[in-house]
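RECORD CONTENTS
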Amino acid sequence: MLASDNREFGPVITADPQDITMAGLLGFLADHKDRPLVFFYEGRPVLPGYHVTEVKAGRFDALDCGGNPESWSEIFVQLWDVNEDRTHMPAGKFAAIIRKVTEHVGLDQAAKLTFEVSDGVRPMQLYRAALPRLTDGAVHVELAPRPASCKPRDRWLEEEKSAKACCGPSAGPQPCCG
């Protein structure tokens, strides 16, 4: 594909180290199918009767604030935070829901994973998921608000960090920056 100035460009994929993919989440859950799956957001757990109300996949093509093309895939899991007099969903049931969706909708297991959470009264909020952990016999997944970012600035900061790491003292005969 060509940019407006006729130079070639490809999709830029910048993975956020704070995010887990669907494959990463399902891989962890596979070893803990019978344990309750509890999502935490805003300092509290979801209520025991929460529902997975929707799972959707999208492919996005955009221009960032610097005019750079961006492309990514994203999976959205919608959680309805309600109490329906039952226990938290077992991890295996959540995985089965995702498997059923995968049968009907192509889910890129490496796609960015976003949770949409609402109690049915407050507006839906977007969250990213941290790595799951076992705590008190349950699988805990911490959801943190998905912040906005400036992708050109993020790339510049990453390049600066790499340059500083690279341009330190070298143990070999050649300096790493040359």
